[in-house]
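Holo model, guanosine-5'-monophosphate. Inputs:
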Amino acid sequence: MDALKRKVIEDGVVIDEAILKVDGFLNHQIDAGLMYEIGEVFHSQFSDQGITKILTIEASGIAPAIMVAHRFNVPCLFAKKAKPNTLNQGYYQTDVHSFTKNKTNSVIVSNEFLSDQDTVLIIDDFLANGEAALGLHRLAQQAGAKTAGIGILVEKSFQPGRARLEEAGLTVSSLCQVASLKGNKVTLLGDDA
Ligand code: 5GP
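Output:
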């Protein structure tokens, strides 16, 4: 997706060889027009899959996921990283190790909002080791829901996330693939480095 690739190249800040900061349009300030376009693209890719819910994880997945959900005209459900005191009924729970924070969170979704009647499209901002997406897929499995696919904005293709998701039998679609962050530079897959 050219608009996203341009933003990543122009606004992305390389923190180190493994981490890219995109606070200018995704993780702090949000480019709403770009999120809208992302909704269109994922809708065109997954519109024939009978999607009933968009599933993401707080906080940074929510902005793109809500626009995808709007386009599909289905709810956006986000997994929470802490159990609120107000959640007293049943819930699904799994552990997710955060790549950027190097911390494991127990993430949860209320069983009120996910069931075996659902087909989910999982959306997240980044794909690194695949922990967040696999965790969301496990939550869907606990509910008996079907995972139609994983939609990622920025895939770091030098990390094993895609391979792990594909090994689990999941379809992965990413809109921008980063080949390398070496030399303080973003190199996209297919670019001449
Ligand atoms: P994974 O779960 O695939 O290992 O990592 C993906 C999650 O970690 C995403 O939800 C994202 O929030 C965060 N993440 C991983 N790598 C990066 C990165 O390079 N930059 C930013 N901003 N977030 C990242």
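DSSP finds six helices and ten strands in the chain. The domain at 2-80+114-188 is CATH 3.40.50.2020 (Rossmann fold).
Archived with the compound record.
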